[in-house]
Structure formats: C-alpha cells, structure tokens
Specification:
It contains four helices and five strands, in the order ββββαβααα.
Length: 111
C-alpha cells in the first residue's frame, strides 16, 4: 500500500497497491485531475507518481496476506470499481478494499 504525496494538490494523496515488481495498481483517470473516466490500472512507479514523491502508507489495516491483496487489486484492473466519486469511491477506497475489504477513505473522513 503506497501513497503519492504530491498529485498537484499537496493536501490530497493518491493511493495504490505496490505489487512488488515495479508496478502499482491504482484508481485514476487519463487526465491529471479529471476522474470521470477513471478505471483501475496497473502502471509503473513513474506513471503512478507523476513527478511526485512516493512513500509507504503506514496507517493501513492489512487484513489479508500480501499475495491476496495483490490478487484483489489485479482482479479489478480494467474495471471502474463502481465508478469514481471523490467522496465515496476514490483511490483510497480502492486501496483499502484491497487490503482490508472496507471501502474507506481517511482523507475524506478528516475533511
């Protein structure tokens, strides 16, 4: 579970699942800030980061083993995970669903 600290808006973070092979599964659209067309995608670290810094998210509930987390993430690649919505279904909701089965976003709950 990794996070991108700078995505143009320093107060918001972009989350994804690090598969350990140089790729990340994450929920994002084609355009930098527009997510109406978002889908789950597998990209390299550079594409995930988009010139930002990457760090490990430390406050994550890991309910499943690493291998299962990776399988859960990969099972959604190419889909839209129910459609992107900043408040109720964003990249952090996806990453938490992969790790613990809950669609939650702490950055949304803290606002």
């Amino acid at each position: 579970f990794i996070q991108q600290l700078e995505d143009g808006f320093p107060t918001f973070r972009h989350y994804g699942i690090d598969l350990g092979d140089g790729t990340v599964v994450h929920f994002r659209g084609k355009m930098h800030y527009v997510h109406a067309n978002a889908w789950i995608q597998r990209t390299g670290y550079e594409e995930f980061a988009r010139n930002g810094e990457i760090s490990i998210a430390r406050d994550v509930e890991m309910r499943f083993p690493q291998e299962m987390i990776g399988r859960r993430a990969l099972s959604q690649v190419g889909g839209n995970f129910g459609g992107y919505h900043f408040l109720s279904n964003n990249c952090e909701h996806f990453a938490n669903w992969c790790t613990c089965g809950k669609r939650i976003s702490r950055q949304v709950m803290m606002r």
